[in-house]
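# nightly structure sweep
# worker-07 picked up a monomer target from the shared queue
# config: single-sequence mode, recycle default, output format = C-alpha cells
# input follows
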Amino acid sequence: MRVIGGEFRSRILKSLPGLDVRPTPDRLREALFNVLAPHISGAVFADLYAGTGAVGIEALSRGAERAIFVEQKRAAVDVIRENLKSLGLETRARLLQGKASALAGAIRTDIVFLDPPYGLEREYEAALAKLSEKPPKLVIVQHDVRLKLREAYGALRQTRVLRQGDNCLTIFSPA
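# output follows
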C-alpha cells in the first residue's frame, strides 16, 4: 500500500496481514480526494475505522492541517503509529483507540471519513447518528453498493453518491 498523492506521494505504508483490515483501493482513494480537493487544505480530517491509516495519511499528504485516527484493534493502532512515525507526521496526528461509533460524537473535525468493516452494518447507523448531533462540514461514507444508506441522519443530508465497482462513497453535509 502506498500514498497516492501530495507531499508523501509514492511512500510505502505498512499494512496488516490477513483480511481483518480492508484497505480503500487506490482508485477509490483517488476519486475521494478529487471530491475533497477544494476542502482539504488546512482542514481537520478524521479517519474513523482507520485500519492502516492510509486515508487519513493521504489527507495529511494533500494538505490537511491535522488528522484524527480512530481504530479499535490494537494491532492496527500499532501499524498506524508506525506509518505516522515513518513519515514524521506524529505532531499532526491524534490516534485514538476505541469503538469509532462511540467516539464519533466526541471529536471535532471539518471532514470525517467513515469506513466500518462491511460486516458491521449497524456501525454505519450508529456512527452517522452520533455525527449528526454536531455535524462536520463533510462526512464521506465508504460502503458496499448493496448497502443502502438513508437520505438523512439528523442534520446530515446525502448530497452525492459515487459508485466504483462494488464500492460506494456517499457524501453527507449539514442541511
